Amino acid sequence: MKCLNLSLHAPHVPQPQLLHGQPSQSERLNNWVQGSLTLGTDLSTKFGMIGGGMMGEALLSRLVVEQVYLPDDMVVSEPQVKRQEFLAQQYGVQVTGENRLAANAIEVLFLAIKPQVFEQVAVSLSAHDRHPATLVISILAGTPLKTLESAFPGQPVIRAMPNTPAAVGAGITAIAAGQHAQAHHLELARRILETVGEVVEVPESMMDAVTGLSGSGPGYVALMIEALADGGVAAGLPRAIAMKLALQTVRGTAQLLQEEGIHPGELKDRVTSPGGTTIAGIAALEKSGFRSAVIEAVRAAWMRSKELGQKS
């Protein structure tokens, strides 16, 4: 799945005013880490996240803004020091470079790392670093439940596949439950992931198809928007106006379909008058194989996701 290079505009989270003599954020962080190393499993962090990249931050920001968790109840493990400082200052959460401190969360451990570093992260965590009842939610593309469950034996695990519009709270996430996940775990996962968009539940056997459609879909839609704008430029429109028209046309059409609950074919029929401009354009798309090209794109991404999953 090729991710879009979206700029994440994090919502402003009010920071507490430090009184004279209070420790700074960096001092609080240092004290917290030192205390964690001393106290071990005595801390009661509710939500731990390993990986503070774009998708992790998208979720983190929404959890804080919607007060699903308080910042003091959250810890994010992130290897880059500059990134640690940004997350701590922007959201007020605890940050660390120690994965085991995030894994020690008592409610949820959220994995937002690259699939290729999962094994390295997993072997660094001992049984003493985890609570057996903690729900593990993974957004690692192509990493199956069996791999996740072998790394977190006995723990409830949910595999999730979000997409990049989650960065602006408009994503869709598919979730699949592992063998130890119960109804209340699914409810908790939904509550967390619905902060960045809609959530659907599917059997894991359908996860590769989800990847091919909604996971990779933003790339297809972006390509179509670009092509629409290029067509406008070819027809004589200024680039900025063509792009604005293309973006709002796609956005408005999706909103209309969703709110009215109609089939796309019905909407297409509404706007195609006999001998008109729209049917002429649709005929050109059909001649060029537009419909089959989109179908084959989803199938190709689906097959590639299956191939990657077999290597995990």
Mean of pLDDT: 87
Arrangement of strands in the largest sheet: 3-2-1-4-5-6-7-8
User: In terms of structural class, how would the helical and strand content be classed?
Assistant: alpha/beta
Multimer state: single chain
Q: Which series of helices and strands comes N to C?
A: HEHEHEHEHEHEEHEHHHHHH
CA gyration radius, whole angstroms: 22 Å
Low-confidence stretches: 1-23, 32-43
The number of E-state strands comes to: 8
Q: What is the helix tally?
A: 13
**Roughly how much helix do the residues carry, as a percent range?**
40-55%
The profile of the biggest β sheet is:
8 strands, mixed
Instruction: Based on Cα principal axes, name the global outline.
Output: elongated
Q: Report the span from N to C terminus.
A: 16 Å
- Strand percentage lies at 5-15%
Topology (SSEs and partners):
Elements: H1 25-39, E1 47-50, H2 54-65, E2 74-77, H3 81-91, E3 94-96, H4 99-103, E4 108-111, H5 118-123, E5 135-138, H6 145-151, E6 157-161, E7 171-177, H7 183-193, E8 197-201, H8 207-215, H9 217-234, H10 239-260, H11 264-270, H12 277-287, H13 290-311
Parallel strand pairs: 1-2, 1-4, 2-3, 4-5, 5-6, 7-8
Antiparallel strand pairs: 6-7
Helix pairs in contact: 8-13, 9-10
Description of the molecule:
With 312 residues, this protein is an alpha/beta fold. The protein has 13 helices and 8 strands. The chain has helices at residues 25-39, 54-65, 81-91, 99-103, 118-123, 145-151, 183-193, 207-215, 217-234, 239-260, 264-270, 277-287, 290-311; strands at 47-50, 74-77, 94-96, 108-111, 135-138, 157-161, 171-177, 197-201. Strands 3-2-1-4-5-6-7-8 form an 8-stranded mixed sheet, sandwiched between helices. β2 (74-77), α3 (81-91) and β3 form a beta-alpha-beta unit. The longest helix is centred in the C-terminal third of the chain and has 22 residues, at 239-260. Mean pLDDT is 87; it is low at 1-23 and 32-43.
